[in-house]
Amino acid sequence: MPRHCDLTGKKANNAFAISHSHRRTKRLQEANLQSKRVWWPQGKRYVKLRLSTKAIKTLEKKGLSAMAREAGLDLSKY
Predict the structure, then answer these.
(1) What was the pLDDT predicted at 2?
(2) Measuring CA to CA, how many Å separate 6 from each of 18, 38, 43, 51?
(3) ∠ Cα 2 74 13 (to 5°)
(4) pTM above 0.85, yes or no
């Protein structure tokens, strides 16, 4: 299963880990992903999605159907 948000598409970012002596080594900054059951009113059931915490906050404001439409996601497959 790929490590990205189902609704926003957020994924890992390449970055440097910088030590005290300022030596730089490559590392990954992973997205803060959470598995979440979200109520889908049109389908009258819960949908299990892997969401970033930013997407969960936006979901409360916009709603599941609007965000899925923007992402081009078919919720009946989840």
Answers:
(1) 85
(2) 31, 12, 18, 6
(3) 30
(4) no
CB 9 within 8 A of CB 70: no
Environment class of residue 4 by beta-carbon count within 10 Å: exposed (0-12), middle (13-18) or buried (19+)? middle
Number of structural domains (the chain) is: 1
Task: Give the mean model confidence (pLDDT) for residues 30-34.
Answer: 97
CATH of the domain at 46: 2.30.170.40
The enclosing H or E element of 12 equals: none
Question: Any residues with CB less than 8 A from the CB of 72 and at least 6 apart, and which?
Answer: none
